[in-house]
Amino acid sequence: MRQAAHGGNPQAQCYLGVCYQNGQGATQDHHEAVKWFRQAAEQNDPVAQCYLGVCYLNGAGVPQEFGEAAKWLREAAEQGDPAAQFNLGMLYETGRGVSQNYAEAVKWYRESAERGYPAAQFNLGVFYETGQVVPQNFEEAVNWYRAAAEQECAPAQCNLGLCYQTGRGVPQDQHKAMKWFIRAAASG
After folding, report:
1. pLDDT digits over 141-162, tens only?
2. What is the DSSP string of 53-118?
3. CA angle at residue 98 from 49 to 34, to 5 degrees?
């Protein structure tokens, strides 16, 4: 793998970056991880672009810089990387590195959610439950909560339990509510 990374293979470079980031098979070194992520990202590897964006988002191996995070996350998100789409949605929701724009946040959450990313499914469910940006639709919120909850997303499990407890978007059912509350507690 190292030979392939040194030879310019972007997937190998990204993988080597992950090894340095997590300290797996290499001494943990965030600066070295960023070096490899950047080399792969500059070759248009969406996974590496996402990792590099998250490094800037968290200040891991580079100074925390939300604008630079948004740049790399957008590159990956436009290529369909669901983690990048979710993180870019969060930047738009919070206004970090980009102008706050809830409609843009929902757009990126939806892209990610449709690719099965549980945190994006949960966030999209919240937008439907509250009626912010999208029309309030409890049934749609339940659909997104359920998709995330079935992937062991604890906040979605809790919200789905609340929907069953209160009868929002589903018939009221205390037994199902308790089931989801227990799963949420077990998920952490």
Report:
1. 999 999 999 999 999 999 999 9
2. HHHHHHTSSS---HHHHHHHHHHHHHTT-HHHHHHHHHHHHHTSSS---HHHHHHHHHHHHHTT-H
3. 25
Q: 158 CB contacts (<8 Å, ≥6 apart)?
A: 180, 181, 184
- d(C-alpha 138, C-alpha 121), whole Å: 14
Which residue is listed with tokens 């797996």? 24
User: Rounded CA gap, 47 and 18, in Å?
Assistant: 10
pTM for this model (two decimals):
0.92
Domains (range + CATH), the chain:
1-115 (1.25.40.10), 117-188 (1.25.40.10)
Q: What is the pLDDT of residue 2?
A: 78
Rounded CA-CA distance 90/154 in Å is: 18
Single out the residue of 74, 81, 53 nearest to residue 65, CA to CA. 53
What CA–CA distance (Å, rounded) separates 117 from 131? 21
Closest CA to 1 of 40, 54, 59: 40
Compute the distance between CA of residue 49 and CA of residue 14 in angstroms, rounded to an integer.
9
- What is the tens place of the pLDDT at every residue in 57-97? 999 999 999 999 999 999 999 999 999 999 999 999 999 99
